[in-house]
Amino acid sequence: MTATDHATTTVTATAITASTVDLLVAAYREILGVAGLDRDSDFYEVGGDSLTAFQITGRIQEALGVEVPVSLVFAYPTPADLASVVDSDFARA
Questions:
Q1: What is the C-alpha to C-alpha distance for residues 28 and 30, in angstroms, rounded to an integer?
Q2: To bridge 66 with a disulfide, which of 7, 41, 76, 90 should be the other Cys (CB 3.0-4.6 Å)?
Q3: Average pLDDT over residues 19-39
Q4: Cβ–Cβ contacts within 10 Å for residue 23, how many?
Q5: pTM of this prediction?
């Protein structure tokens, strides 16, 4: 892999993560009803519970076509952390 290939791969991975983060921030905002929520907002601190975790994973499945275990919402409680895991473990082709 050349330096250019590595840079392109890094930029592509960052773009995928950024779009996934945007998707998750929008889902968290809508599902949790917190307009000011951002990529680093904690699921627990903004009132998340098991029902909203299932709604978030449902939204991920609808948008990205991948089934994400609800336990990941609890293990990675910010949209940024969850997006990183979704993109790395459930990468879209």
A1: 6
A2: 90
A3: 95
A4: 17
A5: 0.77
